[in-house]
Write a structure and sequence with these properties.
Oligomer: single chain
Mean pLDDT: 91
Radius of gyration: 31 Å
Shape: elongated
Largest sheet: 7 strands, mixed
Structural class: alpha+beta
Number of helices: 18
Low-confidence stretches: 1-19
């Protein structure tokens, strides 16, 4: 019995040794004059170097290491960091040999001991040939200067694309169970074939959309980190969230949860997706999408799901950022502001606010004069207008000097149109004389205020990090737009006017 147990232990030991026997990638690249080469890999939307061959002789390149490489798509980089070609490394191909000729890389590309890579190279050759075919057709159409060239190109592209899709399906079936199949599946479009007719007699676009969305992630294993290590996964994520999911923060939050629930905590997949969604929606390209970032903070960071992804100090910063943005979402009532106008400045200055050096001194002055100060406030909540433009700006800000005159002109135009509009212009600094002179010189006749008693933390209260910052509020002080340029103000007010008319 002892011998059997010892034999079993020895067997397991040998298996473990084989599993961790390391990698050896030999590449023979004819006509290559490089003296150094790099082994790199894809990971989500970034590229990383895994190894360096410092002695390349006559195109013979060897990458060798004691630990196995992670499964994924790797590529050979030249000494100028140019990509020569991609290839697959998995559990069965930690030791492999690839040959080619730099004079014609793709045509001569061959894996000596990896059928999967040979299939991969054939696939690349096929797609490359199809692309050349389309480019050649495009060139001939342009040369012929045909009036219907756009229609002809669209038709040709559709035919070529359908051919590639059919070839993808064939490749997936022939290579089922290996990484190549999973990778081609990632780039393959899941399009409905038998689309029913809509009431107008045309193919039902709603049916096509729902099919496409439902089957978009078919066959993708979110619990396998190897899915990250290829050139297709990151683009597929971006395509799904930018083009397939309805562009509304609530819809995006639902899809993020659905995707994150498919991953395992503490895996690279989980970590990189969490990081991607967080960074993407903190400063989004579409107004209002920062609601997704606030959702991420509330449901992932505050619940400890970001541990291991970020350091505790970074998590704290992100949570603070979420707390800042939470009350500033579209549809929220704008936080109130307690400001001082220009005529009140002399009274405030006499109290000592302009010469106070420390926060303690400011606090003491404030409470010594609290009753009198409160009578002097110009509050945001006290301004009555159907359309209220809230502008944070600085006299010395170059961009403000360009935007403020535009906003002033627009303000006067809207008044001429009998729009009930006001501008609440908040000077973000405290150089009063410079501020007053600029107001007078430029005839800025809207509501001009500044934080003369230093109680409004504009950075945290309204996320004023740079200037100018523009918000548009409705008659109930509800935030309707934010982070916009002067060119958007008129169209947003026009949209608000339509909303008012609908409500009666």
């Amino acid at each position: 019995m002892k011998k059997i147990i010892l034999s079993f232990v020895l067997f397991l030991s040998l298996m473990s040794t084989q599993a961790q026997s390391g990698y050896e990638i030999k590449i023979n690249l004819k006509n290559c004059k490089d003296t150094i080469a790099y082994l790199a890999f894809y990971q989500f939307d970034k590229l990383y170097v895994a190894d360096t061959c410092k002695k390349v002789v006559n195109g013979n390149i060897v990458f060798k290491g004691k630990k196995n490489l992670d499964k994924g798509v790797y590529f050979l980089l030249s000494q100028e960091k140019g990509n020569y070609f991609d290839f697959i490394v998995d559990e069965q191909s930690q030791k492999q040999q690839i040959i080619s000729d730099k004079s014609n890389l793709l045509e001569n590309l061959k894996a000596v001991n990896s059928n999967q890579n040979n299939s991969f190279f054939n696939y690349i050759r096929y797609v490359s040939a199809k692309n050349k075919e389309y480019d050649s057709f495009k060139k001939s159409i342009k040369e012929q200067k045909k009036s219907d060239s756009t229609a002809l190109l669209t038709k040709e592209f559709k035919v070529l694309n359908e051919g590639i899709q059919e070839n993808d399906s064939k490749f997936i079936a022939e290579n089922k169970g290996n990484y190549l199949s999973e990778m081609i599946n990632l780039k393959s479009e899941k399009v409905a074939k038998d689309v029913p007719k809509a009431s107008n007699g045309r193919p039902d676009s709603i049916f096509s959309y729902h099919y496409y969305k439902k089957h978009f992630w078919d066959g993708v294993n979110f619990q396998d980190d190897a899915m990250l290590r290829n050139p297709f996964f990151a683009n597929k994520i971006k395509q799904y969230f930018n083009s397939v999911v309805v562009q509304h923060p609530d819809s995006i939050c639902v899809e993020i949860d659905r995707m994150m629930n498919k991953t395992k905590q503490e895996t690279k997949m989980n970590m990189l997706l969490l990081a991607y969604f967080t960074s993407t929606y903190e400063i989004p390209k579409i107004m209002g999408m920062d609601k997704v970032f606030v959702y991420m903070v509330d449901n992932y960071f505050k619940k400890g799901k970001a541990k291991g992804v970020y350091d505790d100090s970074v998590i704290k910063l992100i949570i603070n950022r979420g707390n800042t943005l939470a009350p500033l979402q579209l549809g929220k009532t704008a936080p109130d502001l307690f400001m001082i106008d220009i005529p009140t400045h002399d009274k405030i200055a006499k109290m000592g606010f302009d010469t106070a050096k420390t926060s303690e001194e400011i606090t003491k002055i404030y409470y010594d004069n609290k009753a009198e100060i409160e009578k002097s406030y110009v509050t945001l909540s006290g301004i009555k207008a159907d359309y209220l433009v809230l502008l944070f700006w600085d006299v010395d800000c170059g961009h403000c000097q360009k935007e403020v005159p535009k906003i002033l002109e627009l303000y006067h135009d809207l008044l001429k149109e009998n729009k009930d509009v006001k501008v609440f212009g908040v000077y973000t600094q405290n150089e009063f004389d410079k501020y007053k002179k600029y107001i007078i010189d430029n005839k800025i006749d809207w509501i001009n205020v500044y934080d003369g008693v230093h109680i409004n933390n504009l950075k945290d209260k309204y996320d004023v990090v740079t200037t100018p910052v523009i918000y548009i509020l409705d008659k109930n002080k509800v935030i309707k737009a934010k982070g916009i340029g002067s060119e958007s103000i008129k169209s947003i007010i026009g949209q608000m006017e339509k909303e008012y008319l609908k409500k009666g």
